[in-house]
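re: that complex we talked abt at group meeting.

here r the seqs, copy pasted straight from the sheet so there may be weird spacing, ignore it
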Amino acid sequence: MEYTKLSKEISYALRHAPWEYELELDEEGFVPVEQLIHALNESGEYKETITEDDIHHVIEISEKKRHELKDGKIRALYGHTVPSHIRKETVVPPDILYHGTSHKAYDFIMDSGLKPMSRQYVHLSTDTDTAVRVGKRRDKKPVILVVDAKRAYADGVVFYSSGYEKVILADFVPAEYLSIKP
Ligand code: HQG
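got the structure back, here u go
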C-alpha cells in the first residue's frame, strides 16, 4: 500500500473536493469513515482494497497530524478550500506564532497582512521548525514571520485551534503584528 499517496488523496477529498467522492462534509469537516473508504475503493486506483486499518495507519505514520478519526468519522484538521465554512474552536493563542512564506509573498504580506488566500484560514505554526518546513514548499530560503499573537489577541484578532497542536488558524492577521525573524 502506498500510504503517502493514500494520505494525499484523503487530504484532497476532505480539504478540497469531497463532491468528487460523493461525500458531504458536516460543519466540522467530518464524513463517515466508511463512506470515504467506499469512495476510495470505488475509484479503482488502489490495487489492494483499502480497510479502516489502512486509514489508521496513514494517520499513525504521518509526521504531521493532518486527519482525525472520531466516532466512526474522519476529517482533515486544516487546509480546507471547500466553499462551505468549516467551523473551528476559538483559542487563546501562545504569545508567539510563526508563519513560513516566500520572499515574493513577504512584500505583499507586509502591505496587506496575512490572508487565507485560497484556504479558509491563515495557517500559523507554534514552532519555527514547522514554519521553515511550510515556507520551504515555496522558497528554498523562506522568510519566517514572527506573529505577536499575544498583542493581536488582546486587540481582538481571533485565533482557532486546528486540532493539531503545531497549527493554529486565524481569519486574518494585520501586518502590524508581524515582524521578520532575524
Ligand atoms: C501567502 C500545508 C500574498 C502565504 C502546510 C502562503 C501548512 C500571501 C500562501 C498548510 C498573503 C498561501 C498551509 C498576502 C498570505 N499576499 N501572499 N496578503 N497572505 N500569503 O498553501 O500557510 O503539508 O494556502 O504566506 O504545511 O503555506 O499540506 O498556506 O505562502 O500547514 O498538510 O499565501 O498547508 O499543509 O499558501 O500552508 P497556502 P500555507 P500540508
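couple things i noticed - The mean pLDDT is 96. The longest helix spans residues 3-16.
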